[in-house]
Amino acid sequence: MFRFIVRRLIVTVPMVLIVISLTWALIRLAPGNFYASDKKLPAAIEKNIRVKYGLDKPWYVQYGRMMGNILQLDFGNSLKYENETVNDILKRTVPVSAALGACAYLLALVVGIFMGTLAALKQNSKIDYGSMGLAMLGISLPNFVLGPILVLIFSLSLYWLPPARWGGFPSWNLLLPVLTLSAVYMAYIARLTRAGMLEVLRSDYIRTARAKGLTERQVVMRHALRGGLLPVVSFTGPALAILITGTVVVERIFAMPGLGNYFINANLNRDEPLILGIVAFASILVLVFNLLVDIAYGFIDPRIRY
Amino acid sequence: MSEIKTVRLFALILASALLAAGCAMQSKKSDFFGKIAPPDGQVLRYITGSEPESLDPQMSSGQPEARIDIALYEGLAEYHPKTMEPIPAIAERWTIDEDASEFVFFLRQNAKFSNGDPITAHDFVYTLRRGLRPELASRVAYLAWDIKYAEALNTGGAFVRDQKTGRFVLASETPKDAVEGGVAAEIQPASVTNAAPPDEETLHKKELGMKGEDAAPDTEFHHFIHAPERLVVPFDDKDREEAFKANPKLKDLVAGKELVPVKPEDIGVEAIDDYTLRITLRHPAPYFLGLVPHQFFRVIPEKVVEKYGVNWTKPDNIVTSGSFKLSEHKPYNQIVVVRNPFYWDNANVRLDKIMFFPLEDNTTMMNLYKAGEVDALYNHTVPASWLKGGIRYSKDYMDAPENASAYWQINVTKPPLDDKRVRKALNISIDRNALADYRVVSKANNTFVPQGILHGYPSPQGYNLNVEEARRLLAEAGYKDASGKFDPKKFPVDLVEITYNTNESNRQIAEFVQAQWKQNLGITIPLRNVEWKTFLNMRSKLEYKGIVGGAGWVGDYMDPYTYLGLFATREGDNGTGWYDTKFVAMLNEANREPVQAKRYQMMAKAEEYLLDAAPVIPLLKPATSWMKKPYVKGLYPNPGTLHAWKFVYIEHDQAKWDTKMPDMTTDEIAEKE
Question: DSSP letter at A221?
């Protein structure tokens, strides 16, 4: 187990560096630059900017300098917001996105697992159809539709909840974005749980458990859920990573000062250090969460051994 | 069976929820949009657009920053809240010499920074010298290039000195043919070509210093700055080689002489004493005063800037010069400014606090506005679909015209649009009134400088819809059948394309004009949308086929030159490849004319010439299109949506609320109570 974790962590480093290099190359291949705006700059001013940011150097010098800094975990200052370092921006925005993402996922887990389990236990009943219909709706209703609908109802018609903006944690401002964000995950988790549970409930060890005379409650909670939730666990890793690195659409609709909002703008602004910083952070997170999922498997499923 | 039922049930629930929400919206019929509840006290909550890239006034280029900078910093002059003409600010008054190339500003003696330090002419000298230093790499520094040697400093230029005699080579000694030669001139540094030819006659004739009570004393520096303009060449070896390659005679002139880099002390900005500032321009520029309220010219505290470097604008370090000071900056969330007690006119500042919310999504802004969480929005924030939904009749909707022009650019370097007749034909086969009706937020405009924005500017007639004439012109250009009539099939549609940057309104306009041309001329020109930065790249390198749509120009200041000047150079935002020395000469001549009315007439003549050459297809004149709650007073829909916040206040007396768009026909700043 320990050797497995160490091996995986060692592989992570070169993978992140490859991702960064590819991203860097893609930014360079994309037309345009960070200082262009609708008003064209005089050539001399453009030159001043290029000299200031070292863009007049050959590409390998720039690449070397960038890699050197990143290996020291210093992504430098943002090009767009020049008195902020990328590390500052990450430190400030990750908590916002993480709060949003974690709340949303927690809600999704609780509701999703409950609905999925219920549906599996009462297969082909009205409850099953009802919750799966709701899940289908959640999956097919994109958050840029759901968000505005919620805002329309709760903020603009009833005037109950603020329609947007960050109000600290916790605050009422979080409710609508969390609901919007969790809908899809809730739906997926419900469906995954249902499928997993259905399979497990038909398996021999459940039959054994029932034959032993355990109550239905004990069968479900102690035996079935453990196996039935495996698909949910493997879904959780990447899902959580995506949620924590910012959810572009929801953060934009609700004007949340999170990582997703920065990421989309960094790309539009060609803000190279910021893009690289966010990409590096996101890829590390995805790799680490996948590792955590693999570890969790070992605990949940006795058949898996590392 | 029952699965279908469930789906139906959910569809029904969703539909009724939407319907309920829709009804709720409809039933609240009011003259104003959304909740009207003024905040307690004198607090304004304002949405200003995207997160400012910097709070350093010399470093930011956009409007979102400009609006915050107006609160934090003050310059020699401020924007008039209605007309945006310059009104006295830190400068109590100013004098302009007769050919508008020298400005003397008399500063008030009670102006202070937010830490209590006095603001003097030396601070303005520091501000401008720093702003123009090439190492700062300010994107808007070019706005100050009219100041003598400012461009030379900003672009890393050097004077040329003869070591034997100690004499500097003058600009007028530049070999003539090179300055006028087309391609050669283009590669040369702009300081040699773009400047109005050194007008020695005026310079010698001019008496140094003003006469009468406003006489500013003559100084040594004044003599230096008024001496005939020195030659400036790039100090950087590589750039200089380029310049020499383009103009070998220049090389001979410079050979064997010493290069003296232009220093910040060399630019035409001088503190005559603590409260008198003299700015000398390299050529007559009557429009310069209109630039002075721009954030680039707003004063910053030398000590703080030098101490903290790039971090001087952080909340803990920042010291400001305007009516407000920074109290909180949470990026992407809020920027809070509060009253600056040291501000010289603090007694007349009404607001105690302004909360700027940086936001980009229009729907979100409108939601916040409707829910009563913000009091006013910036321009172009109301989506067209909301306007059509009735907001345009709302009494808190502001649609006064803007200092901006929406037009399309034509690549005049490639056939078939290298033919003026073809360009003109396309221009006159568009029904602009129909387009304006369709767009809701704009008015038709067939001239390049938007009509009716600049007081006293006699806009030329422009060209109106005339399909007959268009067909005749196209036939004349050779796209005709055997009988000599225009034949759409002969027109090389494959060589032309309407390229626009991905954006809903650009697409709508492009499709509309495409349909017009199809209907009126029978030609279908394909559309192509590209991502913004790619679009900018294609346009500046003239890599597009035929036409780019989606161009617009927001005036930098209130003068026709902010538009016409775009075509005074091949570079910059020209984007068409059209460059005509006659046109440039017309502009330069107009800029030497001191009488405003006459100068405007000359500018209008130049515009007429431009419209005839048709490198652009003027389309629309946008309305500012924003909203403010009726209790927000002193906030006017001016042509640039730049507000002098010191005049803004919250009116708690309902009887005095605005019941319609404020009157923009008078230039009175505020109703007195």
Answer: I
Between CA B57 and CA B71 the distance in angstroms is 11
Beta carbons of B408 and B501 less than 8 angstroms apart: no
Are A38 and B552 an interchain contact pair (Cβ–Cβ within 8 Å)? yes
Point out the residue among B364, B536, B572 whose CB comes nearest to the CB of A164. Answer: B364
- For the four alpha carbons of B410, B414, B419 and B425, in that order, the dihedral sign comes to negative
Between the two ends of chain A, the Cα-to-Cα distance in Å is 5
The verdict on A149 touching B (C-beta cutoff 8 Å) is yes
pLDDT confidence of B452, banded at 50, 70, 90? confident
* Cβ-defined contact of A48 to B134 (cutoff 8 Å): yes
Q: Shortest CB distance from B54 goes to which of A53, A82, A158?
A: A82
Give the Cβ contact number of residue B527 at 10 Å. Answer: 17
Q: Which residue has the higher pLDDT, B664 or B294?
A: B294
> What are A120-134's pLDDT values in tens digits?
988 899 989 998 998
Select from A33, A40, A155 the Cβ nearest to the Cβ of B367. A155
In angstroms, the CA B67 to CA B613 distance is 37
pLDDT tens digit string along A68-125? 888 888 888 888 888 889 999 999 998 999 889 999 999 999 999 999 999 998 889 9
Helix axes A272-300, A230-244, angle to 10 degrees: 160
pLDDT at B23: 45
Half-sphere exposure of B476 (CA within 13 A, CB side): 13
Contact assignment for A148 to B155 by CB distance below 8 Å: no
Please tell me the distance in Å from A249's CA to the nearest CA on chain B.
10
Nearest CA in chain A to B309: A83
Q: Within chain A, where are the H helices? A: 2-29, 43-52, 59-71, 86-121, 126-140, 143-151, 175-201, 204-211, 216-218, 225-228, 230-244, 248-253, 259-269, 272-300
Give yes or no for a contact between B620 and B505, defined as CB atoms under 8 angstroms apart: no
A124 touching chain B per CB within 8 A: no
Max avg pLDDT among A178-182, A213-217, B342-346, B443-447: B342-346
Q: C-alpha distances in angstroms, A134 versus A127, A149, B13, B17?
A: 10, 16, 11, 15
Nearest CA in chain B to A31: B534
pLDDT value of residue B350: 94
- What kind and span of H or E run contains B650? strand B649-650
From residue B150, give the alpha-carbon distance in Å to each of A205, B56, B279, B327: 85, 20, 11, 34
Q: Check pLDDT > 70 for residue B18.
A: no
- pLDDT in the model for residue A306: 66
pLDDT digits (tens, 9 = 90+) for B508-553: 889 999 999 999 999 999 999 888 778 888 888 888 888 888 767 8
Q: What angle do CA B106, B110, B113 make, to 5 degrees?
A: 105
| CB of A305 less than 8 A from some CB of B | no
- Global pTM? 0.82
